[in-house]
Structures are given as C-alpha cells and as structure tokens.
Specification:
Chain lengths: ~290, ~290
C-alpha cells in the first residue's frame, strides 16, 4: 500500500470536484447566498468526514465512487454546523480554516441562511446515493438525518453551550463529544460502508471504529486548542479556556488527555481487527489523526 | 359538501397529533432544544401548508392519511423558516402567531439551533411517505429539498433582505414572492398529490393552483400588514413599512393590491377547472384565504 498523503490528495480532489458540481455557481441568483455557501465549503478544510466515507467504501472492496454523493453530503452538513457554531450568538468566532468566518465576510443574516442552505443541500446529495442489495435510498437519508438531529449534532452543540462556565463530569463531556463530533463522523463511515453494501457485521465494526475515532479526534482537538498557535490551527487558539469550556486537558491534565487520545485511537484500531475487508487506509488515517501536531 | 370550518379543525387536529408523535418530548435531553422546537411548532399557526397537502391528496380520491408525513414535513420546514426569519440578524421580530418569537423566549443561539433541528426533521418526516405506483420515497425528499433550497425558500428570504430600502419592480417583487412563499406552498400541494399517486396532468393542474394561490396569499399578507392591527395578525403590524420593504400596496396602491389578490385567486380557481378529481375543498380553502379580514 502506498503512502497516505497522495491518497488523501486524490480523495480530496474528487470530493472538491463533486461539491463544485453540486453547488449552484456563484453567479446564480441570488448571488450573495451562493458566494457565501461556496466561501465556506471551499475554505480548504481537512475533508476528514468525506475522506473517511470514501475510504470506508473502498475498505469493503467497492469502487469509492459509489460513496461520492454521501461524502459530499457529510461535508455539507459539517460545514453548515461550523458556520452556525461560529455565529456571534453561539461561539462568536472570527477565524475558521485560516480565513475570516462566514458571518465576518457576509454578515450574520447571510451566514445563517448559507448554513440553512448547506443543510438542505446535504439531503439532496445523500439522496443521490445508488441503492444496493441491502440498502435503499431512504436508508441513506435517514442515517444522515439521525446524525444531524436534536439529539446528536445539534443536541451536542446545545449541551456544549449550556456547559460553558460550568463544572461537568467526564461522562458528561464524553456525551457532548459523542453527539457533537462522533455521531457525524461515525455516520460518514457508515454511509460509505452502506454505499458499498456492507453486511451487518461489517457495518458494526466500522461504526465502532468511527465512534472511537470521533472521540479521539475531539480529544486531540481539545489538546491542540491548548498547545497549538492560531496560525497552525487555522482557527482561534485558546478559545476553549476563554469560553470556560470543559475539555479533556482541563479534566485530565495535558498528559492525561494525550493518554486518553492514544487509548481511544487504540480502541478504534482494535475495532478494525475484526473487519472482513482491507482496513489499511482506515488505519493509516487513524494514525495520521493521532499524530497531528501537539 | 359540508362547511369548511369543521373540516379545517379536523385536519389541523390530525396534523398536530402527528407532529406531536414526531418531535422528541420536552423532557428529552437536551431539554432546551426540544422545548424550543415544540414552542414554535405548537404556537397555533393556521397550518395552511399541511391543510393544503392533505386536501390535495383527498381531491384525488385518496385517504388523506397517505399525506400526513408530508403534511408534517412542510409545516416543520415552514416553522424553521419563520424562526430564522424572525431573528435579530434578519427581520428582528418580537411577535409571531400571537406569542413572543422563539429567540425572545430561548435566546438567539437556541432559536438558530431549533430552526436547524426542525429543518433536519422535515426530511425525516417526508421520508416516511409511502411510495406509490408513480413516485418513490426519494421523489418526496427531493421535492421538499427543492422548495427549501437557496433558489427558492432561502433565496427568497435573501432577495427580500436585499430589497429592503430599495425600489424594486413588480416583476422583482413577484419573483421574491414566487420563491419565498409560493414555492413551499406549491410543494405542499404537490407532495399531497404525489402521495395520492397523481397523474402528470393532475400534478400540473394542482401545481398551477398552488403557485397562483401562493401569490394571492402573499399579496393578502402584504395588504393585512397595512390594514390589520397587531392583535388580529398575531405578528407585528406595519412592519413592512418600517423595514422599507417593497409590497404590493406600496407598488399598486391598496385597491390595486386588492384587485391583484382577487385576480390571482381567480387564476388559482381556474387551474382547478381542469382537475380530474374533486376540487371542492381546495376551492373552499382558496375562497377562505381571499376573504381574510382586510
């Protein structure tokens, strides 16, 4: 198996090209909203969710193109959630993916609407996934809608806001991460697997991998917020402390948090041991995520 | 055919009961978001869109229960758009359906998230519509997603915001109404018709009816904003003038606007003349809308 970097570059290029085909051109009326949608979608994110989606389909022996619609859908849903989370009424962030946040460029009203539009489009995208022997089109729609609902992606953001300035337990923090981050990440993998007609056992392995990886990812994000600088992050560093957010470094100390990230990544990799498929790329991606600068 | 009022009461009760089954209970974690979603959904709206959805299915001879999921979906999408439109960053409204707006009660952050959650749920709801001989589940999902996208519901709100304080032409105003109001209203009727397995000709008749009715409805809304008081409207009267919005009364004068509402209602009723079905209830609803107090 070749190196990870050129593989990621290929996948990201495919996702970007597909997103470009999906979203109305910048000069489509009304232009403001289409400029705003494209501004955030093409801000140069890591594309972690769509990459995992495509890699999951490949791990089961399918051509990764079967999962391209689902890959676009999870990225579109993720980007909408970032735009809304960054609003002054929520986390009030000026910087995202190394650029001014959507509302700093387009104003709050357009940012809210651009987020709405990307959420709406994510369902168009996922609905294009071709049915398989085991899964029909609506299974993909419902999988995405569950990850995005008021008990997962949105519920996690609510609990995150409500926990600000409060002491919460490790279990409560894990529940916030599970809903706010791990759910959509797990769904990204599940959708890719379903597009490849995953067996129930394959889907269960990959779902356990996704959930553990999602937790690991969030713990590492918390660590980076403390240890990295704003230029490296592409978003404002140290903001968790300012917002009095509960984080793993705050609860467990920096070394404790690093150990927890390692433990969760181990758990993720362990879930792949039982996968009837070729998990090499998924393992590489998990390793790569754990070794992000901190 | 009996009177309209008890018929509407029955339909609204059915829609309310179905929405109550769909939405997580108020004590579901995190409670705030579920309270906020239910606050706006059960604020006593007219339920015009779900009523039209159910009545369209009945007009084609189906049991209206086939369209109940779609009826909930269009109401959920409509309610999300009201919550977001009322935000301080947009129309900045304090009153809706006779009660304080969502953000006045729950704050801007929760209001944004409650709107997001209702948009997300609308796709779950519409995805439950049973397939027919002519339409499969994804047709319903895509019909809803088209009405809600950046060139229809969201695009209309963008153009509405951008037109504030500007002189716009009658054609531009008609385009805003077409996207902001008529699109979802037409889709409400189309979804009900599709759930009843409408033929292409039936769907075309009902779509023309919906579009003309949607325009008539918006013209009447503009008139009521000038002529009715806040208590009657349940939302702040006279706000179009304050926001320097272009409206039909402003462009055509009050009498001109009333004539236009009548003309559009005539156009809507005329579209029903060719319907292979029983259009009595749809006619009654159109008459009822035209005769709203002004």
């Amino acid at each position: 198996m070749s190196e990870l970097k050129p593989y990621l570059t290929d996948l990201i290029a495919e996702v970007d090209a597909a997103l470009d085909r999906y979203l109305p051109a910048e000069n489509t009326t009304p232009e403001t909203i289409h400029k705003a949608m494209r501004y955030s979608i093409f801000a140069g994110g890591k594309r972690l969710r769509p990459v995992l989606c495509l890699a999951a389909a490949e791990a089961l022996g399918a051509d990764r193109s079967v999962a391209i619609h689902a890959a676009c859908a999870v990225e579109s849903m993720h980007t909408y959630s970032l735009i809304h989370d960054d609003l002054p009424a929520m986390d009030d962030d000026d910087l995202r993916r190394g650029r001014p946040t959507n509302h700093k460029v387009f104003g709050d009203a357009i940012a809210i609407l651009a987020g709405d539009a990307l959420l709406n489009e994510s369902f168009v995208m996922v609905s294009r996934t071709a049915k398989t022997a085991r899964y029909h089109g609506l299974d993909f729609v419902r999988e995405l809608a569950t990850a995005g609902n008021s008990q997962h992606l949105i519920g996690g953001q609510v609990m995150d806001i409500e926990a600000e300035g409060k002491q919460i337990t490790r279990e409560e923090l894990a529940h916030i991460h599970d809903t706010k981050t791990a759910a959509l990440l797990t769904t990204s993998i599940a959708l890719g697997a379903m597009a490849a007609d995953a067996s129930p056992i394959q889907l269960s392995c990959l779902t356990r991998f996704g959930r553990a990886l999602g937790h690991a990812f969030q713990v590492i994000d918390d660590i980076l917020d403390v240890t990295a600088d704003t230029a490296t992050l592409g978003k404002t560093a140290g903001k968790d402390l300012v917002a009095e957010k509960s984080t793993y470094p705050a609860l467990l100390g920096l070394d404790g948090a690093k150990a927890e990230a390692q433990r969760l990544t181990g758990e993720a990799l362990h879930a792949l041991d039982e996968l009837d498929g070729d998990a090499t790329r998924l393992r590489q991606i998990a390793d790569y995520l754990l070794k992000r600068e901190y």
